[in-house]
Write a structure and sequence with these properties.
With 382 residues, the protein is α/β, with parallel strands linked by helices. It is 43% helix and 22% strand. It has 10 helices and 15 strands. The chain has a 6-stranded antiparallel beta sheet. A hairpin with a 2-residue loop joins β14 and β15. α5 packs antiparallel against α6. It is globular and about 75 Å long.
Length: 382
């Protein structure tokens, strides 16, 4: 997949910016802090996923004093098929977001996800290896949603069921509804949860096994460490899970065990929204508890490069790689090795934001058309 053109209107600090002729190799977007370089990468993320990789709300992407933003981008698949995306967001009430793909208006953002595979790495992603289970679930969901429409659909329906079930529980607690009556009210929603939870958990368990060799390969390319990192799936954060993939039986057992606690707390406590994926630096030690700072950095970059390779194989399309200011976070050895891998062309079209241009001297050849340098100043490409 190649990004060919990008137009931003009232997006962050860009009033009106159009870029055409992106390089098929490395595109460095350089500029001082606050100039709007990350915004270029964010806009590509919005065009591919309908949201920024920073997690920012749409309303915060609108230029100061503005009431809407527009993103237009043209892409070309590995087979030469053109894809044209338009994302428009306007403040309300009510707020309104519209997405067009090749002039067809999409019913929801989920219809866009997966058409343009994309992998983003930022310094904030360090929470994946060292943060809470929420961050690792977010990583799982993004990779699997881009590689499987079925997974994304199940995840959306599951979230709806959890919200409805939580609403019933919260309301029952406020009203003082008896435990017996609450159980009866919850029963159909519990069945709905199980219906969508089982394929989600099954797919996550399969993914852990599929992803492991990709992680090992990328880790060896980037690091000289002797560790062999791996993943361990822990359904509903149960580190003692014995590997039995009869998730329906497991879910029903857990709902029975925790129904009284759910009633007391007014919240759904069972299901894949409680899952974790333990990242291991060896068979016995988790990265979260035992990895050094250097190991965390190597693991994170390796996971993202492995995500790239996994999506390329799963979607049969080369993803676009976004690296937002990551070289400032890496030591010289890791930064040099990562740049060497990118410069080799192994990762297709790559966008790198950086505050310095000198970091790429002697590493990236900008003399031809394969690689390009874009300089951003005060929301303008200069």
């Amino acid at each position: 997949m190649l990004a060919r053109t990008l137009t931003l209107t009232n997006f962050r600090n860009h009033l009106s910016t159009t870029i055409s002729g992106f390089a098929s190799g490395v595109n460095v977007v350089a500029g001082p802090n606050g100039a709007g370089k990350t915004t270029i990468l964010e806009a590509l993320s919005v065009a591919a996923l309908s949201k920024s990789f920073t997690g920012s709300a749409d309303s915060s992407l609108i230029r100061t004093s503005g009431t809407s933003y527009n993103v237009r981008s043209g892409f070309e698949s590995s087979l030469g098929v053109g894809l044209h995306v338009g994302v428009d967001y306007a403040l309300g009430p009510p707020a309104k977001k519209t997405i067009h793909l090749n002039n067809d208006r999409l019913r929801s953002s989920s219809q866009l996800v997966g058409n343009i595979p994309i992998v983003a790495l930022t310094p904030d992603d360090k929470v994946i290896t060292g943060g809470s289970p929420d961050e690792r679930r977010r990583f799982l969901n993004l990779v699997l949603s881009q590689s499987s429409k079925k997974y994304l659909e199940d995840e959306i329906e599951y979230r709806k069921a959890v919200r409805q079930r939580n609403s019933l529980l919260t309301d029952a607690v406020k009203r003082g509804t008896s435990f017996a009556n609450v159980k009866e009210m919850l029963a159909p929603w519990t069945e709905m949860l199980i219906k969508f939870a089982v394929p989600i958990m099954s797919r996550r368990a399969e993914f852990i096994e599929e992803f492991r060799p990709f992680l090992l390969t990328s880790y060896r390319k980037l690091s000289e460490g002797r560790e062999e990192p791996s993943f361990r799936y822990t359904p509903m954060n149960n580190a003692d899970w014995d590997g039995d993939k009869n998730f329906e039986t497991l879910l029903r057992k857990r709902f029975t065990e925790r129904e009284a606690e759910e009633y007391r707390r007014g919240s759904t406590l069972v299901g894949p929204h409680r899952d974790d994926m333990l990242i291991m630096i060896d068979p016995e030690r988790t990265a979260r508890d035992y990895a050094s700072q250097g190991q965390h950095k190597s693991l994170l970059v390796s996971m993202k490069l492995a995500e790239f390779d996994y999506l390329r194989e799963a979607t049969r399309e080369t993803p676009i790689l976004l690296l937002d200011d990551v070289f400032s976070e890496l030591d010289a050895t890791r930064a040099k090795r990562l740049l060497e891998l990118i410069a080799s062309g192994e990762f297709g079209q790559t966008f790198i934001s950086s505050t310095t241009r000198e970091s790429f001297d002697g590493m990236i050849d900008f003399s031809g058309d394969k690689n390009k340098m874009f300089v951003v100043e005060s929301g303008r490409i200069i």
